[in-house]
Amino acid sequence: MSRAPGGSSSLLQVDRLSKRYPGRGNAILAVDDVSFALSAGETFGLVGESGCGKSTLARCVLNLIRPTAGRVLFDGRNLFDLPGGEMRALRREMQIIFQDPYSSLDPRMTVRATLLEPLEIHRVGSHATREARVQEVLAQVGLPESALRKYPHEFSGGQRQRLGIARALALAPRLIVADEPVSALDLSIRAQILNLMQDLQEAYGLTYLLIAHDLTIVRHFCHRVAVMFQGQIVESAPTDELFACPLHPYTQALLRAIPPPDPDQPRKRSGPAGRGETDGPGEWPCRFAPRCPLAEEICRREAPALRELRPEHWVRCHLAEAPLIVLQ
After folding, report:
1. Mind listing the pLDDT tens digit for each residue in 70-84?
2. What confidence score (pLDDT) does residue 226 get?
3. Which of 22, 129, 244, 255 could, after both became Cys, cross-link 125 (CB 3.0–4.6 A)?
């Protein structure tokens, strides 16, 4: 790879990040040499099948899990070199929205206590200032003041996720990692939560790292997208460009698997790239080769590097080309 995607002016820069877990026999490489960058106010989507390393990567980015190798720079500061006090202070600017809005909330704490907790831990303002902030973030997520006295079990799934967003907003962060924030919600509620997140981004200049497996959500919510497979980013591009002209066979298979909006329209078959078992990391130089319909001898002989084929479009494939396209 010639250089890391993104520039030094990025709010967040992930540089050759890897995470290895011990296992029986060979170690498990959950994240392998991943690089990307986020600019302030941007939404960056991370997609891929279950088990590809998306959530592990997100927790490494927030320094909740210590990586095996690599760096994460937030505003130019390497998180893994910061002493405990500085890292604790920096956590005010980096928050997370969890996938399950029920298990991520303490059932023994009222909404008021839940929203006050981060303000008290970081000693933000006076008691009166904290109480005012709690009421402010509750209003920002569209919940009434009467919710402060209630417990998580008294809310619907969508309301609980609004509480999770309110808790993430309490410290006025600059970066929010959203780990599949709507996958546990009914379809009718997902659009409401995503619209709320977009409104908050526009109002407060938030930067999102969105983890998702639903490509329709990513298409309408993210500025750029990275596709992960077995711990590696195999393709990264601006959202419109990736959906208009995917270059990696795995990305193409994912897009073919999206159900058509018209139920009477026949679905496109996913093809060989969407079926079958894969060998574990390390069995093939190119990890996608065992299920790739385009695999050639070079794919079985050497691992493809992540290459820039055109501005901001990165792909890890020997056979991918950069055709001239016109976006609709």
Report:
1. 999 999 999 999 999
2. 96
3. 129
Q: What is the dihedral of CA 79, 59, 45, 8, to 10 degrees?
A: 10
Collapse the DSSP code of 201 into the 3-class scheme (helix H, G, I; strand E, B; otherwise coil) and give the result.
helix
What tens digit of pLDDT does each residue of 180-220 get?
998 878 888 999 999 999 999 999 999 999 999 888 889 98
> Letter for the amino acid at 288?
F
Distance CA(276)–CA(274), nearest Å, equals 7
Max Cα separation, the chain? 68
Judge whether 178 and 134 are in contact, CB under 8 Å. no
Q: Nearest Cα to 227, choosing from 39, 56, 29, 54?
A: 54
Rounded Cα–Cα distance for residues 120 and 122 (Å): 5
Is residue 231 a contact partner of residue 310, using CB atoms and an 8 Å limit?
no
Query: Residue 264: pLDDT band by 50, 70, 90 thresholds?
Result: low
Count of CB atoms situated within 10 Å of the CB of 292:
21
Alpha-carbon distance of 77 to 15, in angstroms, equals 12
Distance of CA 311 to the CA centre of its chain: 22
| Burial category of 275 from C-beta neighbours within 10 Å (exposed 0-12, middle 13-18, buried 19 and up) | exposed
- 128's tokens: 């009166």
